[in-house]
Structures are given as structure tokens and as C-alpha cells.
């Protein structure tokens, strides 16, 4: 592997990683503009803008954007997160210049035609409706809102219907002008790529743009609380979260090992105790999610109205017990799962490109994979037990959806953890 970095005078950053033997590549532009960069009046605009980028530019129609990549067997897509918006393509190595030209065109030259805005507005409203009809999807938006209340970081990425229904061309242009400067972008490519060629192409495309400065972002503040949505569904959906370390805190690796041991697979404590031993649910899992300055330990399960009390109590019991009897074997298994997941995932050019862009945005450098593996391997059983003990007194957030009138609330869970 050969990772190389280059920064243009206007702040535009380029990171490439050549993967010998590959005949394909992934190339994309990651923009530091996500949900946490929106004002309350803009909530949902970053995601809406991502959609609009594919509706046409000054050089290409929406169909031409798709055809130009798919004519050579490639794939183009985008996503919006709370911290970034990404536009990326997968293609054969010989077609990297074409992919970069198309991606840069949709990022720099969208036209925002009124008819296209109305069409895509309808699409996004349908997307919002679909999310509301998917309990194990929407519940995580609600959990995030109560975890980070009354702040941009906690708001839904899709935005509320009333905001999505009101955006106009001028709103998109204002957001682009503020958040789509060259100093807010990273071009990341991996696979069968040539660094010098990509730098030359990027310089020609982005080199003349003027920097706009990095926006001020309010620190995330985990508050905690509860949202309970009563609905006549077959199952109760429950999602519980605790604040966890962000990427800039090395304790993030302890949180990941802990979450994996608790609910990261079929051998995990929650899966074995609640599903395998008691049969109280079909799905239960835990994970540690991380952002620049915060993170979350999240536990999710779906169960029947009659079983929610027992499921909640067993979850409390397992969370408390982990502080006392988490074993060396469990921690070793969790480290192995994380290590293998990281290394196997990075055999894909797309995963490499995304990782490099993400870490460069956070650290200003791309830590070597071996550095991450070493930090995972350094997590001990004592670290995990200590972390488990801290969680029993930490602030918590809870989202409930379905026949949840009598389901235990967040205060009852907190009392149970501290008992």
C-alpha cells in the first residue's frame, strides 16, 4: 500500500492510496458539510443538496451524469452524515479521470432548476415517510435527538417535512457558498490509482477556487432523556444509548471492545442471554459509534409487549455484571472481531478511500492501519471492566416505539443500573 497526501494552496486536500494488483479504483469528494453544520432553519438541506447534485449541472443532464459512469461499467452514489457529505464512484483504473470529472462537476456546478427541486422534494418526502414506516430505522433518529437535545448534532439528517417543503434555490446556493469551499473538501482515491495524475487533474479543476474558511461547529453535548411513541405495532422497538468517546479519544477503542463483547455478534453476552437462553427477541445488538468529539454506546432490541419488562431487566443485569466478571476470553474475542473487521473491510478500495478521507478530516493525517490495530490490541480486560462500571452511572437516552405504554422508562433503567 502507498498512501500519499497533497494540499493545494487554497486548502483543497488530496489523499490517495495505491493498492497494487487492483484494476479498479474508488474516487470521491468528501465535503465537511453535514447535519451538524445546519441552522434550525436549514435542517435537512445538506441531504437535499446531495440529491440535487445528481439532477443536472451546467454541462450534464441527470441522465448524462448516470450514463457517463455506467457506460464504462462504473457506479456512482453519495451519502450525507452528521459531519460530512460524500460523492463517490467506483470504476476501472483507466476511467478514474472520467469519474473525477463527473464527481467534480456535480459538486461544483449544480444548477438547481425549479422543476428538479420540486421533483426531488417529493422524493425526499417519500423517503421521510418510508423512514417513519420502518421502526428499526426511525428509532435511531429519535434516540439521537434525545441523546443530543436542542442542538444541530441531534437533529435528523433528512430534516422535518415542514423544512424540506420550504427550501428554494437561494437556500441551496447559500449553503453551498458557505460550506462547499475547496478548504472544506477532501479528494480521496484508492485502488489502482496514480497519485501524480490525480493531483494534476485536481489542480486543474479545484486549484483556482477561493477558500471560504472552516465553519464554527458547536461541540456536541450529550444530554439524555426519553422519547416514547405509542403505536399499534407487532413489536416493541427499544434503543438505549450512553455517551461514549469520540475519535480523538483513545478510549474509543475500549468502548468498541466493550460494545462488541456485549452485543456485537452471536457469541456476545446480550445475544446469548436474551435471545439464545431466554428467547425474548429475534434481534438484539450493541455497537459503539464515534464522531469527531463524541460517541454513543447503543443497544437495540425488538420484542413483544409482554416481554419488554424481562428484556429490559436482563439488559440491566448484564450491563452491571460486565463490570465485575467480563472475562479475558470475551475481551480477546472482541479484539479479534474488531481487528478482523477492520482489516477485511480495508481490502475494498471504497472502504480505503472513505477511511482515509474521514481520518484526514479529523486528524489532519491518516494514521496507519497498524496503529489502529495496536490500540485495539492494547485494550485489556481491566480497561473493559472499568469502562463497564463507568456506564452504570452515566447519562442515558432511550427511544421506544410500538405498544410501549407500560414499558420501563429511562429513569427506571438508570435506577436499575445504580442499584
Give the SSE layout.
Blueprint: E1 2-7, E2 13-18, E3 24-31, H1 45-52, H2 62-70, E4 75-80, E5 85-92, H3 96-108, H4 114-132, H5 135-147, H6 161-164, H7 169-179, E6 185-191, H8 195-206, E7 225-230, E8 236-244, H9 252-263, H10 269-277, E9 283-290, E10 295-303, H11 308-325, H12 328-345, H13 349-363, H14 369-377, H15 381-391, E11 396-402, H16 410-418
Parallel strand pairs: 2-6, 7-11
Antiparallel strand pairs: 1-2, 3-5, 3-6, 4-5, 8-10, 8-11, 9-10
Helix pairs in contact: 3-8, 9-12, 9-15, 10-11, 11-15, 11-16, 12-14
Report a brief summary of the structure.
By secondary structure, the chain is of the alpha+beta class. The protein has helices spanning 45-52, 62-70, 96-108, 114-132, 135-147, 161-164, 169-179, 195-206, 252-263, 269-277, 308-325, 328-345, 349-363, 369-377, 381-391, 410-418, and strands at residues 2-7, 13-18, 24-31, 75-80, 85-92, 185-191, 225-230, 236-244, 283-290, 295-303, 396-402.
Describe the structure.
The protein has 419 residues and is an alpha+beta fold. Helices cover 45% and strands 19% of the residues. The chain contains 16 helices and eleven strands. The strands form two sheets. A six-stranded mixed beta sheet has the order 1-2-6-3-5-4, sandwiched between helices. A five-stranded mixed beta sheet has the order 7-11-8-10-9, with helices on both faces. A hairpin with a 4-residue loop joins strand 9 and strand 10. Helix 10 runs antiparallel to helix 11 and helix 12 packs antiparallel against helix 14. The radius of gyration is 23 Å and the shape is globular.
Amino acid at each position: 500500500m502507498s498512501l500519499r497526501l497533497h494540499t493545494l494552496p487554497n486548502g483543497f486536500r488530496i489523499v490517495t492510496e495505491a493498492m497494487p494488483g487492483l484494476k479498479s479504483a474508488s474516487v470521491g469528494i468528501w465535503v465537511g458539510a453535514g447535519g451538524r453544520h445546519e441552522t434550525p432553519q436549514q435542517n435537512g438541506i445538506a441531504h437535499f443538496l446531495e440529491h440535487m447534485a445528481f439532477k443536472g449541472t451546467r454541462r450534464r443532464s441527470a441522465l448524462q451524469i448516470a450514463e457517463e459512469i455506467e457506460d464504462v461499467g462504473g457506479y456512482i452514489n453519495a451519502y450525507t452524515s452528521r459531519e460530512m457529505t460524500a460523492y463517490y464512484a467506483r470504476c476501472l483504473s483507466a476511467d478514474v479521470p472520467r469519474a473525477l470529472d463527473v464527481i467534480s462537476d456535480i459538486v461544483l456546478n449544480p444548477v438547481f432548476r425549479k422543476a428538479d427541486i420540486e421533483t426531488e422534494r417529493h422524493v425526499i418526502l417519500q423517503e421521510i415517510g418510508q423512514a417513519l414506516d420502518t421502526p428499526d430505522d426511525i428509532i435511531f433518529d429519535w434516540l439521537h435527538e434525545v441523546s443530543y437535545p436542542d442542538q444541530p448534532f441531534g437533529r435528523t439528517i433528512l430534516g422535518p417535512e415542514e423544512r424540506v417543503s420550504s427550501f428554494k434555490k437561494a437556500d441551496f446556493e447559500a449553503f453551498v457558498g458557505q460550506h462547499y469551499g475547496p478548504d472544506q473538501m477532501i479528494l480521496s482515491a484508492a485502488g489502482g490509482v496514480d497519485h501524480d495524475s490525480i493531483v494534476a487533474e485536481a489542480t486543474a479543476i479545484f486549484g483556482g477556487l477561493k477558500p471560504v474558511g472552516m465553519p464554527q461547529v458547536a461541540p456536541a453535548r450529550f444530554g439524555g432523556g426519553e422519547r416514547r411513541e405509542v403505536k399499534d405495532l407487532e413489536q416493541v422497538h427499544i434503543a438505549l444509548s450512553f455517551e461514549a468517546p469520540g475519535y480523538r479519544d483513545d478510549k474509543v477503542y475500549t468502548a468498541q471492545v466493550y460494545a462488541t463483547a456485549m452485543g456485537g455478534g452471536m457469541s456476545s453476552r446480550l445475544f446469548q442471554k436474551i435471545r439464545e437462553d431466554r428467547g425474548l427477541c429475534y434481534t438484539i445488538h450493541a455497537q459503539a459509534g464515534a464522531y469527531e468529539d463524541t460517541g454513543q454506546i447503543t443497544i437495540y432490541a425488538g420484542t413483544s409487549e409482554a416481554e419488554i419488562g424481562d428484556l429490559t431487566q436482563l439488559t440491566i443485569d448484564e450491563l452491571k455484571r460486565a463490570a465485575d466478571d467480563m472475562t479475558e476470553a470475551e475481551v480477546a474475542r472482541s479484539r479479534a472481531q474488531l481487528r478482523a473487521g477492520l482489516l477485511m473491510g480495508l481490502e475494498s478500495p471504497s472502504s480505503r478511500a472513505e477511511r482515509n478521507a474521514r481520518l484526514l478530516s479529523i486528524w489532519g493525517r491518516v494514521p496507519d492501519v497498524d496503529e489502529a490495530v495496536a490500540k485495539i490490541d492494547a485494550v485489556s480486560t481491566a480497561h473493559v471492566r472499568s469502562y463497564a462500571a463507568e456506564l452504570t452511572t452515566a447519562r442515558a437516552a432511550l427511544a421506544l416505539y410500538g405498544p410501549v405504554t407500560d414499558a420501563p422508562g429511562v429513569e427506571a433503567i438508570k435506577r436499575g443500573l445504580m442499584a
